[in-house]
Design brief:
Blueprint: E1 7-8, E2 20-21, H1 26-29, H2 39-49, E3 61-63, E4 68-73, H3 78-90, E5 100-106, E6 109-115, E7 120-121, H4 122-125, H5 131-148, E8 151-152, H6 187-194, E9 221-224, E10 233-236, E11 257-260, E12 267-270, H7 273-281, H8 287-296, E13 308-312, E14 315-319, H9 321-331
Parallel strand pairs: 1-8
Antiparallel strand pairs: 2-5, 3-4, 4-6, 5-6, 7-10, 9-12, 10-11, 13-14
């Protein structure tokens, strides 16, 4: 990919107010007088239908008649909205994502108002589709991930963090006992932080962990979805001609449209992270993990070649770069 095809994301150029409304979005252009459900309406509706409410990441609130989904909670971040905003305006013909209509912050809660995708989660239909269609889906996803790699940082201001240079929102770092994850100015600095998280607070142990050397410090930093589980891939079968704006994503010979949802964990991360997380969320040894993921996610850095043999617990442990990464994830109790 030549440099002229690159698209630079400048964090300071992203909308960042606690309350943003995008009146040029389809929600308002179709009806300029439309109003969004208020924060109190959403909370009241949730409380009225839930016996034991939780507020960190409650189920999204859906308004099908308005084509609206509201993702909300105390752990939701406007960084996800910023991601959808940027992708829709810069890669809409290559990476299909829900359109963001607005966001609000209210009493510690964040509310993201976005397009409700009319489709099915891929994990619910995967067993029912043909092998040819599975291959078509993987090819489509590969194109989308390749397009994401066109996104670049300012070469003089590279970092590991969210799209807006805030903390990483990966669920691996979601424990209340873990301080905000970044941002970090180097991959090495991020790895040093990550590999010390399992040590008790106040620990004086500064000895290097034997697995630390097998994280890839010279990895490139790329824009990453962070959770390519089939449940976060929506598949739709619109009638041809229904929506010209998705013509580059709709394969004429297959008739399906893929939409990648749930960008909560997205951001700038080491290049290997996408593959590690996709494998980590998959069933061990499953066809999805072993056959299909490698068709659209770069996995060559993760094995199968063994890169270490470490004596631990009175035995030799062999593994790949993925195994070294997973060692630290497991030590966090994940």
């Amino acid at each position: 990919m030549s440099s002229q095809d690159d698209i630079q994301i400048v964090p300071s150029s992203l909308p960042s107010s606690p309350s943003e409304t995008f009146y040029d979005s389809s929600y308002f252009t179709a009806n300029p007088n439309r109003e969004l459900p208020s924060a109190s309406e959403i909370r009241d509706r949730y409380n009225a239908t839930t016996e034991f409410p939780t507020f960190e990441r409650p189920p999204p609130m859906m308004f099908p008649d308005q084509g609206l989904l509201v993702k909300w909670g105390t752990e939701i971040s406007i960084a996800e909205g910023q991601c959808l905003y940027f992708l829709k305006r810069n890669l809409s013909s290559e990476v299909n994502v829900p359109e963001i209509f607005a966001w609000r912050q209210d009493n510690g809660f964040t509310f993201l108002y976005m397009e409700l995708i009319d489709g099915k989660q891929l994990d619910t239909v995967w067993d029912d589709i043909s092998e040819d269609e599975r291959d078509d889906i993987c090819r489509c996803l590969k194109k989308m991930i390749s397009s994401l790699r066109r996104l670049k940082q300012d070469p003089d201001d590279r970092f590991i963090g969210s799209i807006s240079q805030g903390p990483i929102k990966d669920v691996i770092f979601s424990s209340p006992s873990i301080l905000p994850a970044g941002s970090f100015t180097t991959v090495r600095g991020f790895h040093d932080w990550f590999t010390c998280l399992h040590r008790p607070e106040g620990s004086r142990d500064r000895s290097p962990d034997p697995f630390r050397a097998h994280l890839i410090d010279d990895s490139d930093i790329v824009f990453t979805h962070g959770d390519l589980h089939p449940s976060n891939i929506m598949i739709s079968y619109p009638r041809k001609g229904n929506n010209n704006s998705i013509s580059d994503i709709l394969k004429e010979d297959s008739g399906f449209v893929l939409t990648i949802i749930d960008w909560h964990q997205s951001g700038w991360l080491p290049e290997y992270w996408e593959g590690c997380k996709a494998r980590w969320t998959a069933e061990v040894g499953s066809a999805w993990s072993e056959i299909y993921l490698p068709k659209f996610v770069k996995m060559d850095m993760l094995g199968p070649e063994l890169v270490f043999r470490i004596n631990i617990y009175d035995g030799d442990l062999e593994g790949t770069h993925y195994d070294a990464w997973n060692w630290f994830v497991l030590r966090l109790g994940m």
